[in-house]
Design brief:
The complex is a heterodimer.
Chain A: E1 9-14, H1 20-26, H2 32-38, E2 40-44, E3 56-62, H3 68-80, E4 81-87, H4 88-93, H5 105-112, E5 136-138, H6 145-156, H7 168-175, H8 180-184, H9 200-203, H10 220-229, H11 234-241, H12 249-252
Parallel strand pairs in A: 1-2, 1-3, 3-4, 4-5
Chain B: E1 7-10, E2 20-27, E3 30-38, H1 45-49, H2 57-62, H3 69-84, H4 90-121, H5 126-130, H6 134-155, E4 164-165, E5 168-169, H7 175-199, E6 214-217, E7 228-231, E8 236-237, H8 242-245, E9 246-251, E10 258-261, H9 271-278, H10 284-292, H11 305-325, E11 341-349, E12 352-360, E13 366-372, H12 374-392, H13 398-410, H14 416-420, E14 426-430
Classes of the chains: A alpha/beta, B alpha+beta.
Chain lengths: 261, 431
């Protein structure tokens, strides 16, 4: 990009999360300096103590909404942002911490903290899109840094970013993996999980465990019927579906076993 | 000063890394209050681990930290395996060390080049620093990438590796992949040595305190996954006795529990503690490199932890190469029989010792989980450092004093978001 071009002003924000998705920016070892040159990074606390006030052209948001302060903060970020994209399972579905949504959060607080009154937390951990309009979601636990780079490159060039919404199965076939469910009866979430990781788990001889959340039009009832046929128990099914994307609408309710005809 | 801080003793803890702030109060030119405030929202891992299957622990606890997921995976699998009493064969033990070497290299290098060195050279961050010192930043990025190459080859990916399981790994890399990794690490070894040589030329602020250092100590190796817990005051206990000597306190200004010894003393975990307590376990070439880098033993200036990280990075490259060169493809895991009971493990995360304890029932379901991360253990020491540092530097203008305090907090490499969320530092002077 030449010097006279106006560079996109970017901010990176953090809510409840492990920092791993932001870290993917810094893990772009070969591209980081070129990227930093092509855009104007105005707010990125993980990387710099220098920051500039908004408005921002692009806000990248990691993490889920879990505190009363978060509720106000995300509105403020939305108001200051032209394009708001969320990154990672926490921001796009509530993350692993959304397991509290299925329990009594007060019990959770008492298990972890001796002095529960010090702790201010919401009953539910929720996706950013439950609170404000989100222009683009990048999935994954963690996100794939190649996808992140593609999305940012598209945005910098004024294009609409896009990532595949199909299932991990497509990547798995393209990679030449043998199907872990067909060959070994392993309960694999790949058929209902969005692509993006390059079918990494089947390539390492294990079943997909759903880091990228539900794919477009997932058929969870049908998949779980197959799992039951290969011997998965109901508690195993619930645990498998309820991990990093448990609060994603398509994974929230576990479909019950279908009646035998 | 009015004592507002409420102190409660607890045995269970929660997250640490994340958003924090610092508060220093000075009355009549005396420091009267220092607080490292951590307000990272709690995520309740110990609570939702209850009811999960024990084989899920490595994948779930990895999500506590995107910077050191391997540490969580290692403490989890070792704690769970300890219940059955199965000892893994030597080659799997070595491969776990290799994976940990990858995390040490990438995490230490991230901290050195991107989080800490900018303080020493007066830049806001590594990207700003790259404008004047491009070659240095590029060297750091390349070294970090080598650590990540280990994580990607053996772990499947850099953040939240997918290849760690109770009993070993799901699949081992092939020899060609390991050969490529060896070439990457041989080059990284040079970069790590250059890093150490260069860091040795930096100016370090003065601060020395009598710390109680605590680290793992193994009978023959520099510690990663095994050893006894030892301290610079002569403590020497097996891992399962850790809760008898250390406790966690819930204070109002932190959503992370604070670790203290049962006698109330603050203690110090991390690279400096490991180095001071395990110097004789470092191979001779690394001891020589330490001396050449001007690293004294024991080291008591926390700012010089930067040098120790550089030294540990050189060591991790050597150790990785030793394991890579000896690699033969064998079974990726051993079966671990299901045994109900309680298991403990401590491993050395890049930032210091990480304790996990699990109780599982005869169905393999987790009934109770306790996780004590290094940053929560270092919190009281960080606060004590700040107290002394501010007392000794009251003459400095506020902005300079603030920056020195930030730099001092980063000595502990509190997980990344902590390290860089210290913008809310407030110095209050009442006269």
């Amino acid at each position: 990009m030449n010097e006279t071009a106006i560079k996109a002003k970017i901010a990176v924000w953090k809510f409840a999360s492990c920092d791993g998705c932001q870290l993917q920016l810094l893990d772009l070892e070969d591209e980081l300096l070129a990227l930093a040159d092509a855009v104007h990074i105005a707010y990125f606390m993980e990387a710099s103590r220098h920051f500039e006030p908004g408005p921002y052209d692009i806000s990248i948001v990691e993490g889920s909404v879990t505190t009363p302060h978060d509720l106000e903060h995300i509105q403020d970020i939305r108001a200051q942002s032209g394009f708001l994209m969320t990154i990672g399972a926490c921001a796009t579905s509530g993350g692993i911490q959304a397991l509290r949504n299925f329990a009594d959060v007060d019990d959770f607080i008492r298990i972890v903290y001796a002095e529960p009154t010090f702790i201010k937390t919401l009953e539910k951990s929720t996706a950013i899109s439950e609170h404000v309009h989100v222009d683009f979601e990048l999935r994954g636990c963690p996100i794939n840094k190649r996808q992140l780079l593609e999305v940012l490159t598209a945005l910098v060039h004024g294009k609409t970013p896009t990532v595949p919404k199909h299932s991990v199965c497509i990547e798995c076939k393209a990679r030449g993996n043998s199907c872990v469910m067909v060959t070994r009866g392993a309960p694999c979430l790949g058929p209902v999980t969005q692509a993006g990781c390059n079918a990494i788990c089947p390539a390492y001889d294990r079943a997909c465990f759903g880091c990228y959340g539900p794919c477009e039009t997932p058929n969870l009832p049908s998949l779980l019927e197959e799992w039951r046929h290969v011997g998965a128990t109901e508690p195993e099914i619930e645990r498998s579906v309820h991990t990093f994307n448990a609060w994603a609408p398509a994974f929230r309710e576990i479909p019950k076993a279908q009646e035998e005809p | 000063m009015t004592e507002k801080t409420k102190i409660i003793q607890v045995d269970y803890l929660a997250r640490v890394e994340g958003e924090g702030a610092m508060y220093v109060r000075i009355d009549d030119d005396k420091v009267t209050d220092v607080k490292l405030k951590i307000f990272e929202p709690p995520r309740f891992f110990e609570a939702f681990l209850r009811g999960r299957h024990h084989t899920e622990a490595p994948d779930i606890t990895a999500r506590i930290c995107g910077i050191c997921p391997v540490a969580y995976q290692m403490s989890a699998v070792h704690a769970i395996e300890s219940i059955s009493g199965v000892i893994l064969p030597e080659y799997l033990r070595d491969l776990r060390r290799l994976l940990y070497c990858g995390e040490w290299i990438s995490s230490h290098t991230l901290h050195m080049y991107m989080l800490h060195i900018p303080d020493f050279l007066g830049y806001a961050g590594a990207v700003e620093m790259a404008k004047d010192h491009g070659d240095i930043v590029r060297r750091g990025l390349e070294l970090k990438k080598a650590g990540n190459a280990i994580m990607a080859t053996l772990g499947g990916r850099e953040v939240h590796p997918i290849n760690v399981r109770v009993g070993g790994f799901y699949k081992l890399p092939n020899r060609a992949e390991m050969k490529t990794l060896g070439q990457t690490l041989r080059h990284a070894r040079d970069l790590a040595q250059q890093t150490l040589d260069w860091i040795a030329t930096l100016d370090f602020p003065d601060l020395e305190r009598d710390y109680i250092f605590v680290a793992l100590r193994h009978e023959s190796e520099y510690p990663f996954n095994e050893g006894r817990v030892v301290s610079s005051q002569g403590l020497d206990i097996p891992v399962e006795e850790f809760p008898n000597h250390f406790e966690e306190i819930h204070v109002e200004h932190s959503t992370a529990l604070q670790g203290r010894m049962k006698d109330g003393n603050a203690y110090f975990v991390g690279p400096m503690a490991r180095f001071n307590l395990n110097y004789d376990r470092l191979p001779e070439p690394i001891q020589v490199a330490a001396k050449a880098g001007g690293l004294e033993h024991p080291v008591k200036n926390p700012f010089r932890s930067l040098l120790v990280r550089a030294l540990e990075t050189v060591y991790a490259c050597d150790e990785a190469l030793r394991i890579i060169d000896a690699f033969k493809k064998r079974d990726p895991f051993v079966e671990i029989p299901l045994v109900a009971g309680t298991g403990h493990a401590i491993t050395e995360a890049p930032r210091g010792l990480l304790y996990h304890r699990y109780t599982i029932d005869d169905q393999g379901i987790i009934q109770d989980a306790v996780i004590i991360p290094p940053t929560s253990q270092n919190q009281p020491t960080i606060e004590e450092d700040l107290f002394d540092l501010v007392t000794q530097n009251l003459h400095l203008p506020d902005a300079e004093l603030q920056h020195l305090c930030e730099q001092s907090i980063r000595n502990y490499d509190p997980c990344i978001s902590c390290a860089t969320h210290f913008l809310n530092i407030k110095v209050e002077r009442n006269r």
